[in-house]
Amino acid sequence: MTSTDLTTLNSARDRLTSDGSVLRLSETEAEQKSGYQAPTEEGLGERMIMNMGPQHPSTHGVLRLVLEMDGETITRSKPVIGYLHTGMEKTGEELTYLQGATNVTRMDYAAPLFNELVFSLAVEELLGIEVPDRGQWIRMLMSELNRMSSHLLFMATNGMDLGAVGMMLYGWREREEVLRFFEAVTGLRMNHNYIRPGGVAADLPDGWEEELSAILDIIPDRLAEFDLLMTGQPIWRDRLQGVGVITAEEALSLGATGPILRSTGYAWDLRRDQPYLKYDQVEFDVIAGSFGDCFDRYSIRLAEIRESMRIVRQIIEKMPEGDYRVQDKKVTPPPRARIDESMEALIHHFKIFTEGFKVPEGEVYVAVESPRGELGCYIVSDGSSKPFRMHIRGPSFVNLQTLPHLMKDSFLADTVAIISSVDPIMGEIDR
Amino acid sequence: MSDAETPSIDDAELAEESVEEVLEEELPQPELLHGVPVSESRGQVVLHPSRDEYVALVSSLRELGYWMCVDLCGVDYLGYGPNRNLPAGVAPERFEVVVGLLSHSDRSRIRLRVQIPESDPELATLFLIHPSVENPEREVFDMFGIRFDGHPDMTRILMPDEWVGHPLRKDYELGRIPVQFKGASTAR
């Protein structure tokens, strides 16, 4: 797995810190320099500062890019973010641990269950409780399905960005199959608040195996259609191959994780390398590319959908019986039926949902492999029922730093392909 | 200084001994790892370098395989009640910068907690060691007002440039925007 050494890594890093592919301009400077500037005698002024976004059909939310252009070629660039900032980390300090999942689930809205998962794992680590087996397997099932739906959304948007407009409809159609299952289990298509500290909100509904098997029967054929429509198609390959190339050393230096890091051939996946939940009990391959270009990132995601389906099939077979949440009176509300017959149960229920449960003091960092890379959660608890500090390490936020380096010396037309291949989710970047 | 006033060699040795004894008795020596105090939090290794040791420690950890700086965030401990789980010899300050390092070769993580005093909220940047901290350090500056010395672009990242205050500080007012339902002067 470690296919590099420190010397190469250090030289890549020094190149990155000195090559000036990031355009570091203040807002006023950018305004002064924006637009076409006539060439001066020194030959300067041929470079042009251009704004792309914040409203642009291919920027995946309100992302703004300030580009310095030399003709059609991008010399330096800078992503400008913050347009969706709503202070979710500050909000997290005002919500109890039980309410916290509703907040974090809105960060990466394409993969909400991963946010709930990492938050819950961090809280459980602080509480020192372990979720029963069935709860853990359900969490794993839901995360893998969410990985599928997130990558299917990528297929849709990536296709649309590159002019394969029909792909947008197909990608969303397949994603909807998965979301329909989420709706049956959690009650909602997105922002589920399903994975909570202590387990999951509800057991899987009756007949979930059949419903899932139906989905798993449909999607492989549809993926074959994607291959037909995109993977083998010469125009598609021309648009993606050799575009937005990054090396493993550069990706490591820039903190890139997920498909961006794996596209360089550096096979690092937290599911395999630092297993959480029950990932050590299922078989799957970590997909790695070799060229680190947009095409590799596309095909890795396509292959990861297939790997996730492979994991889901194993989960259906291995799903154990038992509790779906921990039976700890401090954390778990009493069953609904008990509330009708017992005054204490009613009080207990009321207390948990108004005051929340207290979490022992301490600090902890937990990470999971989200569809976009390492999703981390750092929580500091002061022993009360609200986190003292809740920080989410969003993979998109860090991955976005690769953009200027990916776009350096490429054509303006390729920026769209490159942004799309990084698959940023602005809700998570701006939080 | 006359000869009579200088203490004899024996006396000096005695005095030195007693100082060491006193130190050992009264100040418990912190456990060290990579030359800095270490503590454990829920099974995770946490190092507590001083601001002067910080950069050197990160670069020596890089030599040891911690190639990736995964996370960097700030914490404002204003009004934090309980014990902060700091090892002996580390004086608590208002702010902390928390850095997460990852080693792929032995699949381990290590966390650094650096104490930043309120009177001088500044820390050296890690940009030249780990370029991945560029955005996270800007975020910490934006949210906590901790400046990173040597950072190439120490500007706000999430809040508008002209914003006053640092929102994730504990003494930053939450604020409310009045909601107007009727009689708004502007047309919708």
From TrEMBL, chain A:
Q: Which Pfam families match?
A: Complex1_49kDa
Molecular function, one GO term: quinone binding
- Every copy of the NADH-quinone oxidoreductase subunit D domain together lies at 161-431
Q: What InterPro entries does UniProt report for this protein, alphabetically?
A: NADH_Q_OxRdtase_suD (IPR001135), NDH1_su_D/H (IPR022885), NiFe-Hase_large (IPR029014)
Mark out the compositionally biased spans (Polar residues).
1-11
What segment(s) does the record annotate as region Disordered? 1-40
PANTHER family on file: NADH DEHYDROGENASE [UBIQUINONE] IRON-SULFUR PROTEIN 2, MITOCHONDRIAL, NADH-UBIQUINONE OXIDOREDUCTASE 49 KDA SUBUNIT
- What is this protein's name? Unannotated protein
- This protein's species is freshwater metagenome
TrEMBL record, chain B:
Instruction: Provide the species name.
Output: freshwater metagenome
UniProt cross-references to InterPro entries, sorted A to Z:
NADH_DH_suC, NADH_quin_OxRdtase_su_C/D-like, NADH_UbQ_OxRdtase_30kDa_su
Q: Please verify whether the record's keywords include Transport.
A: yes
Q: What is this protein called?
A: Unannotated protein
Which family is annotated? Belongs to the complex I 30 kDa subunit family.
| Molecular-function GO terms, alphabetical | NADH dehydrogenase (ubiquinone) activity; oxidoreductase activity, acting on NAD(P)H
Q: Where is the NADH:ubiquinone oxidoreductase 30kDa subunit domain?
A: 50-174
Provide this UniProt record's keywords sorted from A to Z.
Answer: Transport
